[in-house]
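input
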Amino acid sequence: MTALELTIPDTSAMEELGIRLAAHLRAGDLIQLDGELGAGKTTLTRGIGEGLRVRGAVTSPTFVLARTHPTAVGVPLVHVDAYRLSSALELDDLDIDWAGSITVVEWGAGKLDGVSDSWLRIAIERRTGAAADAALRPGDEVDADEEPRHVVIEGIGPRWADLPPLD
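output
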């Protein structure tokens, strides 16, 4: 397993990270996104969608559980919100074409067993208080929605034995 740690200063930079990540994705890739509500999971996915040139807007699939977005690169982006799912079996019931899609699963911890032998696990931590202050320069002002995020990207399995440069 390899890991990369980044400090992402704002939502624009989170989308840019998604765009950079998209350049390395191909059919069959699976990304697990973890982080509290408001951490930036959907913002990162929006950037991935922009990098893949999806048709339409990438929005949270909270109420529909999964959305498939056609892309200009020919491989669909499947965006899943697994928050309300209790197991990998319920995820399997969504009938996702894992091999033919690039799949991003929000709240996927513990629910991806058996789906793939390789995936990216991306943990996003919203930094507040002293942790946020440490990432700022003197004089910086921060909107509550624009607080820095600490992002850890872990490559799991043979596909991600070497993480691409994303910083």
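quick obs: The helical segments are 11-22, 41-52, 88-92, 129-134.
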